[in-house]
Amino acid sequence: MAAAEALTKPATGSIMDHIDTTTIISLLAVLLILFSSYAVSLKALAPSTAPSLRILFIWHAFDFLIHSIFEGSFLYNCFFTSAPFDAGTHHPALITNFLGRSDRVFGAAYGDNWATKLWMVYAQADKRWAGADLTVISLELLTVFGAGPLAAWICYGIAKQDWRVSFWMVVLATGELYGGFMTFAPEWLTGNLNLDGSNFMFMWVYLVFFNMLWVFLPLYAMWVSFQDMGNAFMVRNASLAKQKSK
């Protein structure tokens, strides 16, 4: 209950007020995943690999690990961490008949493991991640079990110089952008009821930086893929034109 109560405390403007051990470990874990993705790229890709493809390999490896580890842990807590509904302490809106249960509440706020601590830190900026928001869960099911494995396959395809990679990068990037829109559009339409951007940490680190990664990098992947597919079609068209001229 202490974790859940933390969400109701007013935020202060100092960034240091929102940095604790869990925050530091979580940020270091993100950096470790990034460096691990870079290290894998050094092993999997030839030194002559184009910088754009190396960047996209690292991005998709990072994407796969974040989806699988962090967001996978969010789903785990939604499905397997719960508490009996208490009308005296729980808001009635928490009952959504998730998993057909109207007598229990689900999510990180009701557990005590490394993942619940991580998500309760992020939930200070977006309260939906403390519980079992149905829209977020629906998107994360697609993200963890669809986008994550596809990102891993894209890494494999880049390493093997598979021509299909460009198409699948566009597919994944489109899904990532749509998922981001569907995550935040409900908040924009309701006055950001669940969001707290009252201080630098919540606004610029949690809400802006970590979410905008999944905007700019997918757009970059689309741009590189567009160029690759454009070049392929130009070669094909030139070949067809040559055949017609004979």
TrEMBL record:
One of the record's GO cellular component terms: endoplasmic reticulum
Keywords, sorted A to Z: Membrane, Transmembrane, Transmembrane helix
Subcellular compartments: Membrane
A Pfam family that the UniProt record links to this protein: EBP
InterPro entries: EBP (IPR007905), EXPERA (IPR033118)
Domain EXPERA: 52-222
UniProt-listed GO biological process terms: sterol metabolic process
Chief localization: membrane
GO molecular function terms attached to this record: cholestenol delta-isomerase activity
Membrane topology of this protein: Multi-pass membrane protein
The UniProt record lists the keyword ATP-binding: no
Membrane-spanning intervals of the chain: 24-45, 57-76, 136-158, 165-184, 204-226
Family as reported in the entry's similarity comment: Belongs to the EBP family.
Protein name, as recorded: Emopamil-binding protein-like
